[in-house]
């Protein structure tokens, strides 16, 4: 029998999935679900970064930068002569993005990301001019301005250049001020809705049972496999305390459906739980792997009061011979198959083809996702 070694070409991040305990660990309700209406809102704005050391937009190729500078100067009461052509090297047109957190109030500071739109070489040392930040509804919710901080190193010598990190993207810590808050309807009619991160009817039922066992029958009711309606106290102060306790409730989520994810470029294989196979025979090129599962019986001594335990042990015979057939008997773990293919130097394409064939034949009892 060949000795298994760690793979060189393929990385199986969950090869030990067959040893996962059958019972899921308890998780906080905060990690399993979110409260409807408590969410972030994306903000975006168009602005100018000035004060660059000759690394700004090449205005002959980015006419929108010239138009933006001319419009800004006109707002400041400066009218350019007709037919004047600006040759700017210290200005860059940028997009400013950030997220408005839930319950944000006017005056709160936000971090913003500044990204070059044109062909500026670097935003290092630049200053973002006052930029309105708008939401999806077109309303202004914040104003951004400040010195742009760019990480990374850029060097050029003897006609060759070395660049580490992106010099055309920077951040401004606390560079935006919230100007308008978003109305929230959380707790309207003394009812909130919990939305599970993943739709699962069993988990929704367990959440309802956990909430009702703590706060009494009728407190929570499942609307479907994802949304759970919960009654809250009437006062805002009591509601906040209630939600804080609610998020700390521990629930044992149901095991998710078996799933195998494979990266076709790197050959990485990830399994979310123990995945077993039905009996099948596979022939692929010159690969030959035989996996047999044999029951191992562990019987306690007489009169010891113990119980007999039967476990399945996989025995793997690895070969690399043309024209052979890989025989996989029912009950074998997919992790064992992956380890066997890794040990004989199978390529990511080989593993991908085999997994797809096993899924098509009905042997792979899991959802196969190729990324």
UniProtKB/TrEMBL annotation:
Primary location class: other
Record flagged with keyword Signal: yes
Subcellular location: Bacterial flagellum basal body
Pfam family, one: FlgI
Gene Ontology molecular function: structural molecule activity
GO CC terms in record: bacterial-type flagellum basal body, distal rod, P ring; outer membrane-bounded periplasmic space
Signal peptide span: 1-26
Keyword set, alphabetical order: Bacterial flagellum, Cell projection, Cilium, Flagellum, Signal
Keyword Zinc-finger assigned: no
InterPro entries: Flag_FlgI (IPR001782)
Protein's GO biological process: bacterial-type flagellum-dependent cell motility
PANTHER family reported in the protein's UniProt record: FLAGELLAR P-RING PERIPLASMIC PROTEIN FLGI (PTHR30381), FLAGELLAR P-RING PROTEIN (PTHR30381:SF0)
Role noted for this protein: Assembles around the rod to form the L-ring and probably protects the motor/basal body from shearing forces during rotation.
Similarity remark: Belongs to the FlgI family.
Subunit structure as annotated in this protein's UniProt entry: The basal body constitutes a major portion of the flagellar organelle and consists of four rings (L,P,S, and M) mounted on a central rod.
HAMAP family in the record: FlgI
Name the UniProt record assigns to this protein: Flagellar P-ring protein
Organism whose genome encodes this protein: Janthinobacterium psychrotolerans
Lineage start: Bacteria, Pseudomonadati, Pseudomonadota, Betaproteobacteria, Burkholderiales
């Amino acid at each position: 029998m060949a000795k298994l070694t760690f793979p060189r070409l393929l990385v199986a991040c969950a090869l030990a999935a067959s040893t996962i305990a059958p019972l899921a660990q308890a998780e906080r309700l905060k990690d399993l679900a979110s409260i409807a209406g408590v969410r972030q809102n994306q903000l975006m704005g168009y602005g100018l970064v000035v004060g660059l050391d000759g690394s700004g937009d090449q205005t002959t190729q980015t006419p929108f930068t010239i138009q933006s500078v001319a419009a800004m100067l006109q707002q400041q009461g400066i009218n350019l002569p007709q037919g004047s052509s600006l040759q700017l090297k210290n200005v860059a047109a940028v997009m400013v993005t950030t997220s408005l957190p839930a319950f944000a109030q006017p005056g709160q500071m936000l971090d913003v990301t500044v990204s070059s739109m044109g062909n500026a070489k670097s935003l290092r040392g630049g200053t973002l001019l006052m930029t309105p930040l708008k939401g999806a509804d077109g309303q202004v919710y914040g104003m951004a301005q400040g010195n742009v901080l760019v990480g990374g190193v850029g060097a050029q010598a003897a006609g060759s250049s070395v660049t580490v990190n992106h010099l055309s993207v920077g951040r401004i810590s606390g560079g935006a001020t919230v100007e308008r808050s978003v109305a929230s309807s959380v707790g309207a009619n003394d009812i909130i809705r919990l939305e599970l991160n993943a739709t699962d009817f069993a988990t929704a039922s367990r959440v309802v049972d956990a909430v009702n066992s703590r706060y009494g029958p009728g407190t929570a009711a499942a609307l479907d496999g994802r949304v759970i309606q919960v009654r809250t106290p009437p006062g805002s102060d009591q509601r906040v305390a209630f939600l804080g306790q609610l998020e700390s409730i521990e629930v044992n989520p149901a095991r998710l459906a078996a799933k195998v994810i494979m990266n076709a470029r790197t050959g990485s294989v990830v399994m979310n739980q123990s995945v077993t196979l039905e009996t099948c025979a596979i022939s692929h090129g010159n690969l030959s792997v035989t996996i047999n599962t044999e029951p191992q019986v562990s019987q306690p001594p007489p009169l010891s009061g113990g119980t007999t335990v039967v476990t399945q042990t996989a025995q793997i015979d690895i070969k690399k011979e043309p024209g052979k057939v890989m025989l996989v008997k029912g009950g074998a773990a997919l992790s064992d198959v992956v380890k066997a293919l890794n040990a004989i130097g199978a390529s990511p394409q080989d593993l991908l083809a085999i997994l797809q064939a096993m899924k098509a034949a009905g042997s792979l009892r899991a959802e196969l996702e190729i990324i």
